Amino acid sequence: MKTAILIPARFGSTRLPGKPLLRATGKYLIQHVYEQASLARRAQIVAVATDDDRIAAAVRSFGGQALMTRPDHPSGTDRIAEAVAGLDADLVVNLQGDEPRIEPDALDFAVELLQRHPAAAMSTLATPLTSLEQYQSPHCVKVAIGDAGQALYFSRSPIPHVRDGQPDFERQPFLFFQHVGLYAYRRPFLQRLARLPASPLEQAEKLEQLRVLSLGERIQVGVIPAAHPGIDTPEDYDRFVAWYQARSTDQRRAA
Questions:
Q1: HSE-up (13 A, CA, CB side) for residue 93
Q2: pLDDT digits 0-9 by tens, 2-13
Q3: Do 158 and 141 contact (CB within 8 A), yes or no?
Q4: pLDDT digits over 105-116, tens only?
Q5: Contact yes or no for 25/57 (Cβ under 8 A)
Q6: What is the pTM (predicted TM-score) of this model?
Q7: At 37, phi and psi to the nearest 5?
Q8: Which of 127, 124, 126 is nearest to 114 (CA)?
Q9: Which residues, including other chains, have CB under 8 Å from residue 32's CB and lie 6 or more apart?
Q10: 138: DSSP letter
Q11: Distance CA 207, CA 205 (A)
Q12: How far apart, in whole angstroms, are the C-alpha atoms of residue 129 and residue 53?
């Protein structure tokens, strides 16, 4: 099965305009994401899907592949559904363009889940919740996972709800999970999904993966130990730059 990792990227961002082209590290932010994706062993194709000539030019400047798409897509899923139409790929990974610390092993894991679970239309990842603050925050998307590893529901609300007492984040097996926004799709299902309207659940929670569950399709969830934060705000980017510079200094000293 051929796999493509597609990175949807747009210039506009409410909290951080021009985010893909930030380069305080000496590299474009989108370049960091692209290079991490290129380390995945399961992918034969890595490309950025964008409607912006500036982003496309930046990607090509560092030797990456850029695929131009229409400017009117409401989501990254719709953008990659258009982009994959011209590619020879059976499985498609949707990697957000603001995830410069994504682990290549996590990308491979999402692909392997689809290879091992033929009944799943798509796969995604989750990591154990570790604090009450995360559990209660609407900015942290939670996922309830069934015994066979399938997603039961995604929500911005605390799920599963603990009726008596407080949630125990140390219990084994883990019960409370934060969703990691990385998806792998079977190509026919991705193209079908992009043609469908948002479901009422999706509209209520503003979570497009609920469209999949509303269709009765299976989302296979893989659990990883931890996930690095994405870049949503200037403060997030500043933290990433500080981390990158510290790591570069350590590598120079080790050499």
A1: 35
A2: 999 999 999 987
A3: no
A4: 999 999 999 999
A5: no
A6: 0.94
A7: -60, -35
A8: 124
A9: 25, 100, 101, 244
A10: T
A11: 5
A12: 39
